[in-house]
């Protein structure tokens, strides 16, 4: 079986790996630098002594309580804020003070209490110097246990509740509460009422931070250390101990009386933190009895054994991990909200692309139908002309090709070429107007994606907005430079260059159609003229030739119309595809960064789940090896004397 030391090293290695993964997750979630620094601080704290942080508002008696623990004045006391910096008390063979920064002082004290832990005295959380509160709040995440000092005359004020929400809700820190100035109570009933008020406040605080957690009975509390009537279990942040967490114990004390009793019982040079001295036994002093200080002191000197401190130290980073993962998850969820808006916007754009393309197909279809209608009318007039012209009475017209051409043009083709070109121009304008509207709509929708984005998404939003800026710049340039007439000219030229009908490439689609129809008429009438050259046979031959000529003309014109229709539809559809495709391609970089961000975000959320599960498993292993941290507190409550 592994020794406790070897087991502890294994747990420390696992926690360092967990914190490294957590740091990477916080980077991905774009957490602010102070939050990301927490993982480094937590990793460092694993190699440090057990850290007990004393916190509370100024004038609650924090410094007096610390002095009472050591039996001498190691911290300055006074009616105004006296602790103007964080003071770290460590064990040392001699009393020495070292400045570690503008607001941090380290002091060595020869006291048995400090052989197994470091004690941190913090400025009042309501100090008029804002830097003090910021430093206190910066130090809390490093704590293995927080001893919070409130006072009988102002028990659990609203500002204290806010601070405890930070300690418990944001960081899930282990917490013990000292209700100082208990000697101000006129009666035991009055003190019990205030203790109950503090317990109720802590209970309400836990409800806010541990919403929905199950409850289980707490250990029986001693008269000196008052425990609320329930404990909690679950995995919510802020429960002060993770799995098996409990509502904090409340120790009513009178630190001023305890310090006075110890000062009188011990020589001035004594550094005893046990409550006894060489000049007399503090336990015989009535002030010591009245101070109710014994249970709190025994908690710190007897209950926090090596295993108990180790369990708390190993649990502290896991509690902080839970809070930090929650912070990372909240930031990732905020990014997911931005991504969801982006994806919805891009999906709407994609839908609009499809709608516009369908509308352009309808426009192209109408244009082709309009052109075909013109050709159909031309065909109808041509059939009527041939039926009228191929007769014995019109032989002179049939023999005079120039006259025939002129008459065909007058009665059949007229200005059909101009009308066909006009129809095509209208179609081109309709297509381009719709495409121009799509460019404007796309620009507006993309611009809306950049509007009112206040989420701190770090690199995610930076990359996204960089792409959006480039895309919007290109869209704006296209919209500003869009020349409808030039685009229409280009579209028609491309169509003319690509359409081949009857082996001929169009110089003008309308002109080509008219010329080919006229040529078809001349072709079919040429044989008629030869066959009907003899007028004497006209009454017999011409009716047959007329019917053949009309039939041939109709077949050839219809084939020409089909070729032209297919060519027009093909080329106009290609132009519509290209026009919508250009807008689609504009949006592709945005879609790519959103898709990549979605994959990265999903991976980060999965990593958050993995870290959470690993932290829970690690917590279970720690408790199996060293016991649940708060069970140690419960042992004090059930095993210590009253005073």
The gross shape turns out to be rod-shaped
- Domains, number: 2
Count all strands and give the number: 12
Unreliable stretches: 212-223, 227-245, 270-278, 631-643
Calculate the terminal CA-CA distance, rounded to whole Å.
Answer: 40 Å
Oligomer status: single chain
Instruction: Report the mean per-residue pLDDT as an integer.
Output: 79
Query: What structural category do the secondary elements indicate?
Result: alpha/beta
Round the Cα radius of gyration to an integer and report it.
46 Å
Order of SSEs? HHEHEEEEHEHEHEEEHHHHHHHHHEEHHH
Roughly how much helix do the residues carry, as a percent range? 55-70%
- Within the largest sheet, what's the order of strands? 3-4-2-5-1-6-7-10
The main pleated sheet reads as:
8 strands, mixed
Q: Estimate the strand proportion.
A: 5-15%
Tally of DSSP helical segments: 18
Summarize the structure in words:
Residues 208-243, 265-287 are annotated as: Disordered. InterPro entries: GTP-bd, P-loop_NTPase, TRAFAC_Dynamin-like_GTPase. With 643 residues, the chain is an alpha/beta fold. It folds into 2 domains: 49-303, Rossmann fold (3-Layer(aba) Sandwich), CATH 3.40.50; 331-587, no CATH class. It is 65% helix and 8% strand. The chain has an 8-stranded mixed sheet with strand order 3-4-2-5-1-6-7-10, sandwiched between helices. Residues 212-223, 227-245, 270-278 and 631-643 have low confidence and may be disordered.
């Amino acid at each position: 079986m592994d020794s406790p030391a070897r087991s502890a090293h294994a747990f420390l290695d696992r926690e360092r790996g967990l914190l490294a993964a957590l740091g990477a997750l916080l980077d991905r979630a774009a957490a602010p630098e102070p939050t990301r620094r927490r993982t480094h601080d937590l990793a460092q704290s694993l190699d440090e002594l057990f850290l007990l942080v004393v916190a509370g508002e100024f004038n609650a008696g924090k410094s007096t309580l610390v002095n009472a623990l050591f039996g001498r004045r190691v911290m300055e006391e006074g009616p105004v804020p006296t602790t103007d910096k964080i003071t770290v008390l460590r064990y040392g063979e001699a009393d020495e003070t070292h400045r570690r920064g503008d607001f941090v002082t380290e002091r060595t004290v020869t006291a048995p209490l400090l052989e197994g832990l470091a004690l941190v005295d913090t400025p009042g959380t309501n100090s008029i110097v804002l830097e003090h509160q910021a430093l206190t709040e910066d130090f809390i995440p490093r704590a293995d246990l927080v001893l919070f000092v409130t006072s009988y005359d102002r028990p659990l004020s609203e500002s204290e509740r806010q601070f405890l929400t930070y300690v418990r809700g944001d960081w899930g820190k282990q917490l013990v509460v000292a209700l100082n100035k208990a000697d101000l109570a006129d009666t035991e009933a009055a003190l019990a009422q205030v203790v109950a008020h503090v317990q109720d406040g802590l209970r309400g605080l836990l409800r806010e931070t541990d919403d929905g957690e199950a409850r289980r009975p707490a250990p029986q509390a001693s008269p000196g250390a008052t425990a609320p009537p329930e404990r909690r279990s679950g995995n919510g942040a802020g429960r002060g101990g993770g799995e098996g967490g409990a509502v904090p114990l409340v120790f009513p004390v009178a630190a001023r009386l305890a310090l006075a009793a110890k000062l009188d019982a011990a020589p001035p040079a004594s550094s005893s933190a046990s409550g006894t001295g060489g000049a007399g036994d503090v336990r015989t002093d009535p002030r010591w009895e009245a101070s109710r200080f014994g249970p709190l002191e025994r908690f710190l000197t007897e209950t926090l054994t090596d295993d108990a401190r180790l369990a708390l130290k190993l649990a502290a980073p896991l509690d902080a991990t839970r809070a930090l993962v929650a912070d990372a998850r909240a930031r990732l969820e905020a990014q997911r909200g931005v991504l969801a808006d982006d994806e919805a916007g891009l999906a709407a754009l994609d839908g609009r692309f499809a709608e516009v393309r369908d509308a352009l197909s309808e426009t192209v279809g109408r244009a082709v139908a309009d052109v075909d209608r013109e050709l159909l009318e031309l065909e109808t007039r041509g059939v009527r002309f041939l039926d009228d012209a191929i007769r014995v009475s019109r032989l002179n017209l049939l023999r005079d090709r120039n006259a025939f051409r002129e008459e065909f043009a007058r009665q059949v083709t007229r200005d059909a070429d101009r009308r066909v070109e006009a129809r095509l121009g209208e179609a081109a304008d309709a297509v381009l107007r719709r495409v121009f509207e799509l460019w404007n709509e796309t620009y507006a929708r993309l611009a809306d994606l950049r509007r009112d984005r206040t989420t701190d998404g770090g690199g995610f939003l930076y990359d996204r907005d960089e792409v959006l800026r480039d895309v919007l710049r290109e869209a704006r340039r296209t919209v500003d430079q869009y020349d409808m007439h030039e685009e229409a000219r280009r579209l028609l030229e491309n169509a003319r260059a690509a359409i081949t009908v009857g082996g001929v490439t169009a110089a003008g689609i309308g002109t080509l159609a008219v010329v080919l129809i006229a040529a078809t008429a001349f072709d079919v009438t040429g044989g008629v003229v030869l066959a009907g050259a003899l007028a004497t046979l006209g009454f017999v031959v011409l009716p047959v030739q007329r019917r053949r000529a009309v039939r041939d003309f109709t077949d050839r014109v219809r084939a020409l119309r089909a070729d032209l229709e297919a060519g027009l539809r093909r080329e106009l559809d290609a132009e519509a595809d290209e026009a919508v495709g250009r807008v689609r391609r504009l949006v592709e970089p945005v879609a790519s960064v959103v898709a990549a961000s979605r994959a990265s975000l999903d991976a980060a959320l999965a990593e958050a789940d993995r870290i959470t599960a690993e932290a829970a498993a690690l917590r279970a292993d720690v408790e199996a090896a060293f016991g649940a941290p708060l069970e140690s507190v419960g042992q004090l409550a059930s095993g210590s004397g009253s005073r």
